[in-house]
Amino acid sequence: MESARVPAAEIRRLEEHLGYHFVQPALLLQALTHRSAAHERNGGRRARQSAAKRGVGSNERLEFMGDRVLGLLMAEWLLERFPDEQEGALGPRHAHLVSRTVLARIAQAMDLHAALDVAEHEARAGVRQTANVLADAVEAILGAIYLDGGLEPARGFVRRMWNDSIVAQAHPPKDPKTALQEWVLGRGLALPQYRVVSSDGPSHAPRFVIAVDVQGKTGQGVAGSKRAAESEAASDLLRQLGAERQATPTPDRKGHGQ
Question: In b/e form, how buried is each residue of 94-110, taking b as 16+ CB within 10 angstroms?
């Protein structure tokens, strides 16, 4: 079960934290493999495509699966926990709980960075500690658990790891763009302006980087739609301004809409 870059002891530690032992350990190893490591190991695009046909490679496909599984399981849990709330309140709760902010926080609680397989140059750049890489890996692990054991162990993982976050939601959170707008207007400042820093990725899975500036500070968000990336940028800036009000990023339905 040992990868050349992920020691067996680290895999065992992670499985204990997950509360799940993989029948197909290769799925967990793939969930921990950043695309830079897959590219480095497989020697470029053509080799990477051949590797994908053999069922190995980066964690991007598992991330895709985990994103969908998380959305379903979180919706199920919220309906169960808040039986009297309508969609207008449940939606912001759901968006917050599946946001990259919460995902990265869960990854940090698991010390997930220590188990990630990334290319050497990316490791030196500190990519293991970046919020987006950590969030992607949590989704990939959830996707791997679902494919390995089905919905029940996936549900158990979500309810263990997200319990503190859902308990902390005494009230539905506020959309961060709205919260940021209220913050600047309350101080007589100009409305925040959002700008596209970059956009890349295939048409079915785009990735947008959006920035927003207020009072010399810049918030940045990365997501699969402009709307969701703007929301993440506003949330990042609110944290920097010390004005976070339990704001929740807009749901990122990857590749759907802008």
Answer: bbbbbbbbbbbbbbeeb
Confidence band, pLDDT 50/70/90 cuts, at residue 45: low
Beta bridge partners of 99: none
Annotation: CATH topology of 176-245: Double Stranded RNA Binding Domain (3.30.160)
Q: Would you say 214 and 241 are in contact if contact means Cβ atoms under 8 Å apart?
A: yes
Phi first, then psi, for residue 22 (nearest 5°) are -75, 130
Binding residues for Mg(2+): 63, 136, 139
- Sign, CA dihedral 75-93-100-199, equals positive
Mean pLDDT, to the nearest integer, of 228-246?
Answer: 79
On whether the CB atoms of residues 46 and 162 are closer than 8 A, the answer is: no
| Domain 8-169: top CATH class | mainly alpha
Q: Same topology for domains 8-169 and 176-245, yes or no?
A: no
Q: Which residues are catalytic?
A: 67, 139
| HSE (side-chain half, CA atoms, 13 Å) at 192 | 31
Domain boundaries, the chain: 8-169, 176-245
Residues 124-139: tens digit of each pLDDT: 778 788 888 999 999 9
Query: In the prediction, which pLDDT does 244 show?
Result: 52
